[in-house]
Design goal:
About 50% of the residues lie in helices and about 0% in strands. By secondary structure, the protein is mostly helical. The relative contact order is 0.13.
Length: about 90
């Protein structure tokens, strides 16, 4: 499993620890056994595997959300009074 995590870290730009913290390494490793690098990148960033979202956690843990610094829509409330503050600027 370490080889998959290390490859995924290299492909996505996220650390092995960040990828492990998603709780999806085992599930993604099983899905991506014969996948291309592009498919592995797409899986990590979007949580979609060949047109299907394998779990609600995959959607919520998609790296695309982390990359832009926002919560995935519909996964958690922003908190009371959050409308009062300007959104954070992305470092992109």
């Amino acid at each position: 499993m370490d080889a998959f995590v290390e490859l995924s870290a290299e492909l996505t730009g996220f650390s092995a620890e960040e990828l492990r913290s998603t709780g999806l390494v085992e599930q993604y490793r099983a899905l991506a056994q014969d996948a291309s690098h592009a498919e592995i990148i797409e899986l990590w960033y979007t949580g979609v595997w060949r047109g299907v979202i394998p779990s609600s956690r995959a959607y919520a843990e998609g790296l695309a959300w982390k990359a832009v610094g926002v919560a995935p829509p519909g996964t958690r409330a922003p908190g009371f009074g959050s409308w009062e503050h300007r959104p954070r600027r992305s470092s992109l």
